[in-house]
Amino acid sequence: MPGTPGPGPASDRTPAWRTALRPRQRGRTRGLAAGLAAAALALGGAVASGAPAVAAPANSPTGKAPAAAQCVKKHGAASAVVKARCARTGDLLDVTLDQLRPTQPSVGFDQIYYKLGRYSSTKDVQNGDVNKRFDDWCETNGQEEAATVPAGATLARPSSFTCTVPVGQETEETRAAMKTVVVGPGGALYLTDGHHTLTSFLETADGGPRMHIRLRVTANLSGLGTSAFWRTMQDKKWVWLRDENNRPITTDQLPRRLGLARFHDDRYRSLVYFTRDIGYQAPDDAAEYLEFLWGTWLRDRVDLGSYDLASPASYLAAVRGASETMSGTPGDTVISDGRTADELGRMEEWNDGKKPTGGEFGKLSAPITDAKPGKLAYALDYRGHLPAKPGKPCEHGNHGKPGKPEHKK
Fold first, then answer.
1. 298: number of CA atoms within 13 Å, CB side?
2. What are the DSSP E strand ranges found in 120-252?
3. Which end of the chain is more exposed for a tag (fewer CB within 10 A), N or C?
4. Full-prediction pTM beyond 0.70?
5. pLDDT, tens digit, for every residue of 187-206?
């Protein structure tokens, strides 16, 4: 699979899973049978307001099928395109990853490498938990976090594990954590949030392009022509038309599908990710493409070329410098697109007032040999094991990209 190395030593790979029922931070454990049935139902698939695959959701007191389901019935077919064209704002839409079209040309590869390194590691299990990929899938699917993960469970078969919130019992909080999509002309699905998370799912060993996930519909613009659609997307700030060097691009230069081979690597986007909860915290009403806005601003203030991003110590120094710059700037400073530092979540105290050895920066600093490595350690360890191109040294930003990206420079 693009961007994913071959199997490493047995100690580095995720073993077969034992059924795990354990207390969670916010968790409410559920019965295995009920959870499996709910997960299987999710893949059965219709679009409904607030409760996909449920004929009469809780918010339908009349017991009648919701408008989206009536629309699907009217068309006499329940194809993916029909379901998308019938979706309404706020609906939860069951999709496969290969149906999604990106609305940005770049991602932070190191953020995805962190996820892939964590997903392929045994350390979560050794610490008495389940592998993070199951928690991430449940959260993204609107179901909070993993509840039970039996032996042999895989992301490719969501019915093989359970989440703490069954399908149909989603809350405002769990729905808010879901990724978002806009329905475009012809029923095409344009991902407006979640490029990193869903690319990680696609690239991990038990995920792939046919993996199912539910997304929350931001808007249905399927009735618009192509030009009007893209004007609306730009007016609503639902598309990011800057490349990895902050140069403008056109909508024709956006990738057509998810996958590391189709994206360019924006190192400043990764940098901002690692400063999360150290220099900024994403506000509840976060701006679209929040991390890109911070990254645009940091380009003129942090020269990544002066750091060795293959060295944990040097990379950490870059993160510290960037996060201190973010936190130390006055809150009313306009960062990008008219947004101030406070509006973009600037933290008044760097690392929440804690010493560098504590707080989130302390966690980020933990080496790969630690029982709980930091995100940066996972990312660099994963990146360091990727194969170099034949005859060339492995340079940062060119890992896991066997094909040419669709973005045209």
1. 32
2. 146-148, 162-163, 180-183, 189-193, 212-220
3. C
4. yes
5. 999 999 999 999 999 999 99
